[in-house]
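Structure ticket #2291
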Amino acid sequence: QQQQQQPKQQQQPQKQQQRLQTDWDWRVSVVVLLQPALILIDHGHFQYNCVSLGLCLLAVVAAVQERHLLACVFFVGALNYKQMELYHALPFFFYLLGESLPPSLTSLHGWTRCVVRVSLLGVTVLGCMALCWLPFLTSWDSVAQVLHRIFPFARGLFEDKVANVWCCLDVAVKLRRLATIPQLAQLSLGVTVLSSLPSCLDLLRRPTPQRFLFCLVNVALSFFLFSFQVHEKSILLAVLPVSLIFPWCPRAVTWFSAIAAFSMYPLLAKDGLTLAYAGCTLLFLQVCSVMFPASGPSSNLFTFLGVLSAVGCLAVHGAMAWITPPPRLPDLFTVLLVGWSCGHFLLFWLYFHWLQFALPGKSKTKME
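Resolution: structure written out below.
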């Protein structure tokens, strides 16, 4: 009887862990599918970001499951569908490189295996890229035209009113008058790379699946805040990886998702999506509060900051709805909305960096 009871006792923790895994799986799925920003842009503003984001999500899943070649195929597909997937390129590069490096730097066998794995990854990426670009390789003019459309430097440092650092800084310092477009492109490139490197180097040193997800968040936010020619819709590239870290910081993910939708309100209002914006955001907040009710000592601070943030958002919405801006400052409330959103994104960028660097251990075990 004791021998029969022992297997049953061993199976109980496994069943509990499977139930917990299934529980978090459906919660993360709900968060991704109910993202108000993605719903409003793809089904109200009518774009197809869900295709590239879906391919990127498949690449993330394949990478976490150690199917690295398949991850390369999916990510190359995402990148060639929408060039803004460059926001996620650095985390994929450093994670796959870190996974390929040998545990011991003095092991000849380990370095041989590393070279083989990196070569296979490189061949897979180049082969998929060549297949996607094959229709345009008929002439150099065709390639140049595609590259010109992919990287529209002539449009300037940022697009319209976007909640990033350059747009907010433009209120006080007119960078576009002080420097040429090539100089601004170099400046934004340098700041973006420098702001992304700490997270990427930490991932290279300790390549774990959980750290990979946080690196995707941090680098995407770095690109949104500091890169060249950013559009309001580019925040969707940060929304996707933020949704995937819901099990570790559900309140922060809920809060970030609401601010992401809020930051695009001027664009949504132009499309007549004010009512849809309110409905999708409130539904998302209600569902998240049901899935993870606030409790415990740490929730008090988040509740206070969340209420303060919500009051600011409602005040901006009220001003835009019922107060006429001064004739000399027709975009006053839009600029306030952009600045309020950018302040949130900067704080989230710092917070998510802190969470990544605070992750324990160096083991390469699969994420539970």
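Closing remark: Residues 363-368 have pLDDT under 50 and may be disordered.
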